[in-house]
Amino acid sequence: MNLLSPGDVAFLLYDWLDVEELCRHDRYGEHSRETFDAALDLAATIARDHFAPHNRLADAHEPTYDGKQVQMIPEPRAALAVLARSGLLAAGMDHAVGGAQLPQVVATACSAWLQAANVATWAYAGLTVANANLIQRFGTAEQVEQWVLPMLEGRFHGTMCLSEPQAGSSLADIATRAEPQPDGTYRLRGHKMWISGGDHELGENIVHLVLARIDGAQAGVRGLSLFLVPKFLLDDDGSVGERNDVATAGLNHKMGFRGTTNAILNFGEGAGAVGHLVGEPNAGLAQMFHMMNEARIAVGGQAAALGCTAYLKSLDYARTRRQGRRAGTDPTAPQDRIADHPDVRRMLLAQKVYAEGSLALVLYCGRLLDERVTATDEDQARDLDLLLDLLTPVAKSWPSQWCVTANDLAIQVLGGYGYTRDYDLEQHYRDNRLNPIHEGTTGIQALDLLGRKVRMEKGRALDVLERRIRATLSKAEAADEEARAFAATVGRTWYDLREVTRQIHATDDPDRLANATLYLEAFGHTVVGWIWLDLLLACGGADDPLRNGKRHAARFFHRYELPRVRAQLDLLGSRDRTTVDVAPEWL
Hints:
Blueprint: H1 6-16, H2 33-51, H3 55-60, E1 64-65, E2 70-71, H4 75-86, H5 104-117, H6 119-138, H7 141-152, E3 156-161, E4 177-180, E5 186-196, E6 205-214, E7 224-230, E8 232-234, E9 240-243, E10 246-251, E11 262-267, E12 273-277, H8 284-320, H9 342-374, H10 378-414, H11 425-433, H12 442-451, H13 460-477, H14 481-505, H15 516-538, H16 545-561, H17 563-573, H18 578-581
Parallel strand pairs: 3-6, 4-6
Antiparallel strand pairs: 1-2, 4-5, 5-11, 5-12, 6-7, 7-12, 8-9, 10-11
Helix pairs in contact: 2-4, 2-5, 5-6, 5-8, 5-9, 6-7, 6-8, 8-9, 8-10, 8-11, 9-10, 9-16, 10-11, 10-12, 10-13, 10-15, 12-15, 13-14, 13-15, 14-15, 14-17, 15-16, 15-17
């Protein structure tokens, strides 16, 4: 079953990211390559045996709502129970809450197996872990005891509730309100929509993290607070009690992720939904970003996983399916494999650089999280915070854009069979197409990157990234001629990108962010170009199919992908106003 390449995962973790080095830190001191491999093997087994078998079934038989209860096939509940019993649900979490305290980069790689096998079932687990991480970070000890521990046991599940019908992505317009009660709780009233995992019967309870405005709080995002609002209230002994005033108004039906419920929720149709304040009042959005940023990198991870599995499936088809002959071949000769045709190889190479480059980018962010957790120097810790902030919109958006392109190419490789339901690829494409919208659209990520992230602390985040890029360029100088040529292109592109960044922010033009998405694409390609150069150098002198494939993929990215950035930077530098000046009536 083609989900991920174990050899590729091992290369990224051990040959490139050197995750074994993390074991010298106290936090990860009990671990070794043996424990990492055991976790990865377990994740792969659960993915193959419990997640993948119902992937198509859940897509064909999506959940329904009868006005009282969500109905869905039984397999997701069984698979999630297996995952919880394995300990992988809490793989990267602290021992204090029953976690395995694996490095985040290893936990991310474990998740990739499950995402590749069945991203819709994985979504329930991923949301739950991110929810638990937020409560552990900002909640009280009692909240951790009551809500986090049952989530990590697989008994409770978690969501994040931001969007509202009238607000969409404009969180400043959130209207859900919270009324303080004498007992210290709050009563919430409002409407939330697009809530993934918002209602189901996969466990005993659902823990909603809800952004709302305490009565009297200021308008805008600075007046938002964060509340823990369960589907069912708890009795004094911690057992599940009566239903909270949280009602499901219906389910949204999507083109992909069909196995993941997506609910419209009404809070407070009666007495008001009982909520518990998490952290400080009016700090809700800052706290929610802890979950949102984790979810954004996870979106990049699931996009990469879907890109990788579709690539491997199309590669296997191209290697075994015989059709046609190359030009100039004897028409009576046996047919060639599809993989023998140059244009098919081009499509396979493009998939490879998009999918494997995306997985590398997401794992790199996981490695940065581990560096941050183990950092002992204050300046180093701040640098890592800034670098993670800078790369988060890229790690979310680049895989979710280019792995959809990779899925499109996978379908193309199979020809007419590619868009039939006889093969998995059309579902992978539909599932992956949601990721450019999940957790903030590409345009929102672009505005965040160009409008805020590149300017943080007078460009310090860019400086931190530049030091890492230049370290790779220095290594390339000691390598072969091809690596030096690739490094020269990466270096020039990075220099030009920084200059365009300076030019954009040298003006007070209110429309200077109009082409932010174009900037994000150029930035992402530059970063992934640097990563492919670093992967090339990590291959060393070994001569084997995996490393030879990495070298050729790096060559392809250098020659076919990085040149895209030049035209984008020229357009950005010109501060073209075509998109700004078009009147809506002309469209």
